[in-house]
Amino acid sequence: MTTVHSPLRLYGRSGELALLDTLSARLRDGDGGALVLTALPGMGRTALLDSAVAAHRERRTGPVLTATAAPAEQRLPHSGLHALLCSAPGPLPLPPDQVLRDGIAPAALLALLRQLGSERPLLVCVDDAHLWDADSRAALGFAARRLGAGSRAAVLLGAGDGAGFAGLPALRLGPLDDDASAALLDRLTDATGAADRADPVVRGELLREAAGNPRLLTGLAGRLTPDQLAGRTALPSPLPGAEDVLDAHAARLDGLPPDTRTLLLLAAAAEEHEPEGAGADAALLLRAATSAGLGPAALDRALHTPAGTAGALQRAGNRVHFSHPLLRRAVLHRAAPHRRRAVHGLLATLLTTGTTGPRGPVRSGGAPTAPGPPALAALVQRAGAAAGPDAALADALEAAAVPPRPHAERAAALARAAMLSTDEALRADRFAAAAEHTRLAGDAGRARALLARVGGRPPHGAAHRVRGLLALRDGPAADAREELLTAASLLAPHEPRRALDALLGAAEAAWATGDALGYLDAMTRIAVPVPDRALARYRDGMCAMLSGRTAEGHALLRHCLDSAGRARDPAGMLRGGVAALVLGDIDAACRSGARALAAVRATGPDSLLPQALEHLAYAELRAGRHARARAHALDGLHAARRTGQPNTAAHLHAVLALAASVEGGTRSCAAHADAALAGAGPHGLVQAATLATWALARADLAAGRSGAAAARLGPLVGPGPRRGHFAARMLAVPCFVEASVLAGRAVHRAGGGADPVADAVAEFAVWVTYTTDPAAPAQLARCRALLAPPAEAAGRYEEALVHHDRTGGDFERARTQLLYGAWLRRRRRTREARGPLRDALVGFERCGARAWADRAGGELRAAGEAVEGSAAGGADPLSALTPQQQRIARCVAEGATNREVALRLSVSTRTVDHHLRNVFAALGVRSRTELAGMLGRRRG
User: How many CB atoms lie within 10 A of CB 826?
Assistant: First the structure.
């Protein structure tokens, strides 16, 4: 077994510890109080109480009375108070034995506690107080409610629930969050030893099984051998180590009548064939209870009154649920194996012999001709009743795991079939199939756990395929590509359709890493001819585009796009969207993305939902619909987290960063870009990294930091190993050109060296000739205007605006108008500049681009036109400054040097110095630091 170390600190309980510290601080100041900590078994309630007692003693605050309830003494009056008073460090005015013999009135206990705390603060701590005798609970509850200011005594109670201590402040402990659970597991397995070797799949299974219960996680980790922890040996099923927590849950139910405990066992078994969290069918449970000999009175009491099952069962309409999943597991764990099998057998018989319920009929005399949901339910219950492997039952379960059943149900049936199989090859096949359906159902962690049971010898093509597809969403994309290529070669002889899916996945992995040759390699391995004509055209068109045969690629992808409009398969619709983006047909990409999203939401699979939302969000972003892109990307981010797809989450963070770079959320842009880059780096996601970097640069441009923007984008759009993704780098060229020109970098190098800005524009011009992206011609004209000599620039800007008039798009048009107006103002043509600048301001405001609107407003003020809302009345210190002085003051407050301000505002450093002296005089400040502080307070 693995050596498990006791945690040196409490994980994930900072809020609870802070509350206990507050109670302790008040007690030291002379004010008493009370707090009840409630929690299910294993949540760390005792550890929190122990920490509070230890802190009180370490500070030498005062005396402590502490006790833990003994369930065996629950019926002995005043036994709880006797145990508590016996813990006193010295003699008491009232001997504990007298309390046990004669009892103590609640008022007398209150007086005693106040007396004990009169000299030094007293802490009273009782764990498992709900198991005390009734007299002790009532007396201590009475006293605790009356301890307040000036009492110098505090009562801290731990209980399974707060029912016996109504009126007292209570804190319910919930499960640990994911980060805290992971940190605790690191500690349990020794962060310097075993944790370094812990297999990620094993870690995921332990964390999943524990569900945030620290005691359960401790038990599970402690029962694994080093080989099991490292993934060299398969994990046992079920995982050992949960017995302690399950026994503690079951102990809550031991005092219930036998009929009630039988009903609980029936309810626990009846959930076996249901989806997770769905509960049990109340009609089936009533029939099973009647067949088991339970009387109507017992059923009514148990199912219609919360006290009937001690709160273990809750009824909601026609469903019956356990109040906590561990209670259900505890009931099954506590029951003898032969009783469990008998109950499953009874349920299987009832499901087979006939009933009609909301999920459909089951005919008497056997299974229906077409296996419907009740037929599978009966098979699952028969599997629970099996005493060992059963090949015939395994075959029946596999045969029932077919559409239109949900992937989760099919996965559960196949996993059971695998466990019942006697043939090792069949067992591996069924575990691999179960993993595939679990992946499609959106449970990546469980899918990996099932894959671990397949085994590695001989190589299993289906397992390699599932493993590669999982890595594509949560792992290094290059590894996913190799895994999927291996799967394709293993599957090709006997499962060509799955081999095709593996190759498409390998191509997607290569695309994510920016490996154009790897993408071509995977696509050219797809057999010719492909049965699906649309897929064949997609393969040939994408290969033609990446091989430089642009005209041929356009024609093939256009045919593919036309076919995708008639597709019913969500994956085919998504490929149509990719084809549209490659063509530059952004509207078609939005339509394909919307259709794919609707199809996935209607028919699944759940694992495809994050990709559908990502594709649609990116297409909407390209179309200039930034708010809609943000909404869909946020939905996709939630779906990616729920289904365990951090690679997809990285791409969605990049989309959100791009949206924020338009809408003006500088902090939001940085946060999403950082998240995208943090995920993209380790997993080699070049496309996500390129988009995130572009987003940061665009936010820099909006804020006037053109030098920083140019520095970010230079490596992406230029040659060399740091070049951006082949499908995204051209999109960033207009930003790079704008940033470089505004930063003064767009000049020919000495000695006739090449200008990287001009080179980028030349490459962009070639790209524009073969894309149908509606914004591209206007962007090219704008780039040429930025680089043109004064005599030609105005004509280039006008040309760009003509292109914008044809295609629409508020944001890109407003950017062109802003640059045109700023150019006119720098040429002292201020009256002409006001029109484009005014239009730019309106355009940015219309599409919610706040930071860009601020930049346009600043230019418009500098052109001599007042901008509504630019000053906040007399309370704004900047209102006393001229528009140019306001702009300089803001730049300096952001930390810019005079030279950087001059470049940003297209003025000389002497002009900046002159205005800055006047700013200092007008505002009454003596330094740049004081100016930054004044504007910082104004923003706050």
Answer: 16
